Fold:
Amino acid sequence: MPELAEVEYYRKQWLPCLGEKVASIAVNRGKRVFREVDVDALCAGLSGQVFQAAERHGKQMCFRFGQRHYLGVHLGMTGKIRIKEEYPSGKHDHLCITMKSGKVLTFTDPRMFGRIRYTVSASVPDWWQDLPPEPSSDAYTFDRMNRSLDRHTKAPIKAVLLIQDEFPGVGNWMADEILWRARIYPGASAGVIGPRKRRELYRTLREVCEDALRVIGTNWNRPPDAWLFNHRWKDGGLCPETKRPLRREPIGGRTTCWSPKWQHYRGKS
DNA sequence: CCCCATGTTCGACA
DNA sequence: GTGTCGAACATGGG
Structure:
């Protein structure tokens, strides 16, 4: 499920326990989500620490315990985090952090494409440093987007928008929403998109990131029907602009939904 | 049984 | 080295 805005929503789920102390840890040892983690160190290290901070960058999250314990969480395709009232928990609750209050910070992920990281360090771990600017931030410039397109001139623009080093947080539905608003055919090579269209793309990129954070990232509200979002999932969906049928086909290796008449821009050939 | 899935990574190839 | 593409990862839902 999770892209930028959904991850932002999940980030907030543990916040009610901010300032509380960890009582004990339980893990589903050996699961793929712990592939980069020393699980013994995590269980031993986190106990007794105070939950201090919850941050997000793109689709990644970082939770700090005490001054030196950094817990990284990526939700993959099916990950969720939430608070449970008591420990005995579900089959896919791979990480359960029970607090002194009895509440349990829980990480769930049936498909296990998600990933946990754990670092103890006086300084910010390398995986949480020097991250590329998010498209919704002030640091994200038109020049930067241009460079991303020029580094991947032959790839379909849809595929380029999904590269996390270039567009952190953008996922499959957001990429489709961005291209629909900019009226660009998702299969168009990034390199053939002209300067004027790039300006439009820059605007819709930032707009979709901001809209998504505001509408879904806050309370997971249902987006307006004027977005592509509500129409893209099922067969038979209609374009909110043209009222004509949407198309769904794999582009850039992912299921892509677009409105053929509306998204006619294919660049210079 | 079949096909599909809002993500990332790795190997092959040009 | 760089860029692009497809397969693989593991599980559940329709």
Summary: DSSP finds six helices and ten strands in chain A. Residues 195-219 of chain A form the longest helix (25 residues). The longest strand of chain A covers residues 51-57.
